[in-house]
Amino acid sequence: NKIEKMDSGHTEYYVQREIIDEQRLKERSQRMDPSQINLPISHRLKKSLSCSTPRLKRSIVGFLPVLSWLPRYSIWDYGMPDLVSGISVGIMHLPQGMAYALLASLPPVFGLYTSLYPPLNCKRLAPDSDFLIYNGTNVTEEVDIISRDFYRVQVAAAATVLGGLIQVVLGLVQFGFVGTYLSEPLVRGYTTAASAHAVVAQLKYILGVSPKRFSGPLSIVYTLVDLFMLLPETHLPTLLASVVSIVVLITAKELNTALRQKLLVPIPVELCTIVVATVISFYTRLSKTYKISVVGEIPSGLQPPSIPNASVFSEVVLDAFAMAIVGYAISISLGKTFALKHGYKVDSNQELVALGLSNTFGGFFQCFSVCSSMSRSLIQESTGGKTQIAGVVSGVIVLVTVLKLGSLFQELPKAVLAAIVFVNLKGMFKQYYDIVTLWRSSKIDLLIWLVTYVSTVLFNLDMGLGASMGFALLTVIFRTQRPSYSLLGHLPGTELYLDMETHKEVREVPGITIFRSSATMYFANAELYLEALKKKVNILYLNLVTIKYIFSVCWNEAGQLKETNGDIHREVELGWRERENSTVFVIPETVRTSDVHHTWMYLKGTDPETTTLGSVSDLHDGDTTTLDSSSEDTLSRDLERVSLGSLGKWTWDIHSIILDFSTANFIDIVAIKTLRNIFHDFSEIGVDIYLAGCQALVVEQLERGGFFSDVITEGRVFATVHDAVLYCLKHRGAEILHSYENGRATHLVCTSIYYHCINN
């Protein structure tokens, strides 16, 4: 090897080595046998079940990471940043926790119990209609608020525990990779649709109306229609309070963003808003004077743990699964974002178990389902929080509020909490811009986003998740089933081979066609691969093999005819003509006998689809070339020679086809059979097939699938495309094919050549 620096400043290198095929590669690299690499199942099982002190320690620390970092915690380095960060996040927990409880149709105090991200869905199983109380005096209906809220809490807790158990089980069986099937367009489309559901759920608090509750597909459409019908009944004081709160929150948040470089910690906008709103509501008696709905009684203290109502498990299992999967996807996406920024690694299975334990444990204390919060995570990061100690500090802030300060927020208007939810969804609203971005970058990803959004909005969160995941998997199948195919050419002065359609400077290697697929060939696209190869290479090799076979059969039948008084059975002769009418390559007009001299002639430039018996019979001088044949052996050799070089749409210089398999990461039995057929059929017309760039796993699968034989050896597989090209040029590149026309040799460049048998 040699490396030099050119005058232009570019580094140039030279490599001189032998041409390496698969057999030589194994010899030089000393590739290990698969049996040496892949240990037996019994050995692997024994190893996985073995226990040692270091392994036990790693398992415990992996399950409880706090045992690893807490002994090394530095108060001087992390104490003050964690304290400031914990207080800031704890203050944010108070308003957002109560607001998101309202989003879940739960009493606000349960948001304080949870104090994390909102649930995805748990309200549809406890509609108001199930808790109507009939007043016998004036025949009116009232909702039993206490019973309704109690049942909703039971539903939320059951869904939370069930979802947590699902997450724990998936984490223990190392199912963390499931998050990879939730692509970013899918997650963003799903969360955008969830925000649409959240906005619709808050409209009744913003407008001060009481629409009917709907569940199932199209429930959001029915709710919007009902809200539109109730617009004339909008409660103006509630609407005014909502609008003022929204304007104040948006303005303050924009100021927060503009001044974030000058502020030590962000201004707790939501906390300031609920404090001011509570004070105004208390002193102006908004709930009594203007009938504005307020939070109401907030009990002091913590709820004792209780076992969830198992009778609703069957009804919430789909919701629990949706919350488990999407909650994990959001959390792991957020975790990977911060890990990339700060240079650490996130264990997806550990995160899944941790999130599951949080939900399972919280469900016994009437908490609703949680996952990571983008806004509060950003606050913790921006204020310097480094460890989980910041979470402990924020938890203490919430604990003090629940125990001692909860009753102070009884006069807080629900419209203000709805406004907080509405404004905090601003980030979700910005995700609608994904439509423009994906339109420019990837139409398929845009389709995933739109299908996810529409299905989730129309069919609710559980069915929407299933539909979107199914569609995303279908796009993967579609993209592998319909890959792009290309012919590669050589970039002069390099060993690189690039697509000739997209690169102007690449040149086709004389006599060699290099074919590449952008995806792995497997059962779903093997037939398409074959069709694309025929189309790109422009060789109708199936027709050629058929022609060769029909020619042999028809000529043998002609030789077996007997003469009767010097005449041929016209009936049989017509039969030959009819059989050959579809191909018109061979038309025996005389009986084959040992003492008759035969001449073989071929016509150039005729379209096989339009050629007829008449056009073949009416040949003119100069249209044919004579190849004498007076014996069966000579005739057979002539037939073999012309069939390999002159049949069908085939140019003289294609003698080798290289299949670039560098994009393949596996191969199945259907693809192996297709490859074997390609090798066999092209060999029938004198074209050699080679494989190049196969990964070791693909070669191993070819061996196990019985691909290699005495005919197709490992010498047909090369390490790189360049190795294969050099081999072809060395062994076939020097051959010159000729046709004899008008007594002189010319290169065989005709695109269609047909054969005709006449008697001299």
Automatic annotation (TrEMBL):
A GO cellular component entry from the record: membrane
GO biological process: transmembrane transport
Transmembrane segments: 155-177, 234-251, 263-283, 320-340, 352-375, 387-403, 453-478
UniProt cross-references to InterPro entries, sorted A to Z: SLC26A/SulP_dom, SLC26A/SulP_fam, STAS_dom, STAS_dom_sf
Entries under Pfam families matching the protein: STAS (PF01740), Sulfate_transp (PF00916)
Domain STAS: 502-728
Swiss-Prot/TrEMBL keywords: Membrane, Transmembrane, Transmembrane helix
Membrane topology recorded in Swiss-Prot or TrEMBL: Multi-pass membrane protein
Localization in the cell: Membrane
Entry protein name: Solute carrier family 26 member 6, like
The organism of origin for this protein: Cyprinus carpio
Lineage, broadest ranks: Eukaryota, Metazoa, Chordata, Craniata, Vertebrata
